[in-house]
Amino acid sequence: MAVVLEALIVDAENAPSLLAVLPDDAVAVELEAGLVLVPLATKWKGVLDRDGGHLGFEQLTEPLAALAEAASATGPVAYVHLEFFGGMGFQASVIWDRGGVSLGPLFTANHEGDLLTPAYRLISTKDAIQDMAINAALRHLGVRADGQRDEFDTVGLGRQRSTGDWLPRQ
Fold it and tell me: Rounded distance, CA 53 to CA 61, Å?
């Protein structure tokens, strides 16, 4: 089964600043640990024109990065992207804070076939899952793993399988 997520993540206090610079139909979804997820809907063609490649990311566009950077004036804003199928895949993340990059860009994969560029780092053991790019970003946002769960599951990112699943049903 495939898992695909592309989103921005901020702490709840900074969510209004982020939403203020995004399209009017942006959705804020509460996560655990006081974080908010803003799934990146592909219908935002003006901002997410899908001509990615900014900062080495496959999907991140320069206009979206500029919005996230502007919103980071009041606190950190993380961009996360992951794609997995059959347990193999990649994660990527970057965080802006106070108008500049404060973490990353980070690129990780758990299988050699998913090393999309030389910037990707192979995380090949289950014990090293904490080193995946999104877990690193969540730690940078203050999340601490909860017992047997990594940061990803601690905040509840595993609740949905795709970016669209986080959006309200029409």
Answer: 6
Q: How far does the chain reach from its first CA to its final CA, in angstroms?
A: 24
pLDDT at residue 136 greater than cutoff 50: yes
SS3 for 6-17 is EEEEEEHHHHHH
What are the angstrom distances between the C-alpha of 56 and each of 88, 93, 117, 140, 153?
A: 21, 11, 9, 20, 26
DSSP string, 18-61: HHHHS-TT---EE-STTEEEEE--TT-TTT--S---GGG-SS--
Q: For the whole prediction, is pTM greater than 0.70?
A: yes
The structure tokens listed for 62 are 């320069």
pLDDT band at 28 (very low <50, low <70, confident <90, very high): very high
Bridge partners for 120 per DSSP? none
Strands ordered across the beta sheet of 29-30: 29-30, 35-39, 2-11, 77-85, 88-97, 100-109, 121-122
DSSP 8-state assignment for residue 162: B
User: Assign residue 81 a region: left if phi > 0, alpha if psi is -120 to 50, beta otherwise?
Assistant: beta
Rounded CA separation 15/28 (Å): 8
